[in-house]
């Protein structure tokens, strides 16, 4: 779980989101590595026949699929030198929107819910590889199995984050490849067209048997 979200609620206007994305004084790199670890896959699959009705369950189900959805959108748009590798676990604690007059626009529905999550991008330039981290502040409107992405703000920075290279200023990303991918996933979820999700399960090296290693 990232330590960026919900830590700077007293910031003013357009600086609120940016401040949330800046590193705190603690060791955020360790937290990032914990989120972006790549555990082994178990043989258990999670059924995707029914779209989750609650937003937390819906987002938790969406994030493992999101990188492939984003990459398809980007490839169709001719973006082939960078790819989304992972999406991090979300935060659901909302920020107070009153007084944020500098935001270009705000969702008007009373049933809008806020979600914070991150994506890890890998960019290829010649022989070099650069890892970048995107921070997203998404607004979902709706209820039950009819959730819609209403609006989203995003920023981007180097990974791992450093104090000398803070994330860029937030931008309205409601029409970005990430937003388009989220909307496409929501349609597939409602229509029951999602692929079964493999459940992630870590295997301790000390407890892994020779048969488990052979199957891997």
Structure, explained:
The chain is an alpha+beta fold. It has one domain. 25% of the residues lie in helices and 26% in strands. It contains 6 helices and 7 strands; from the N terminus they run ααβααβββββαβα. The chain has helices at residues 15-21, 28-35, 55-62, 66-76, 177-191, 210-215; strands at 41-46, 82-87, 112-125, 128-141, 148-158, 171-172, 197-200. The strands form 2 sheets. A 5-stranded antiparallel beta sheet has the order 2-3-4-5-6, sandwiched between helices. Strands 1-7 form a two-stranded antiparallel sheet. Helix 4 (66-76) crosses helix 5. The protein starts with 14 loop residues before the first helix and ends with a helix.
Task: Write the topology of this structure.
Blueprint: H1 15-21, H2 28-35, E1 41-46, H3 55-62, H4 66-76, E2 82-87, E3 112-125, E4 128-141, E5 148-158, E6 171-172, H5 177-191, E7 197-200, H6 210-215
Helix pairs in contact: 4-5
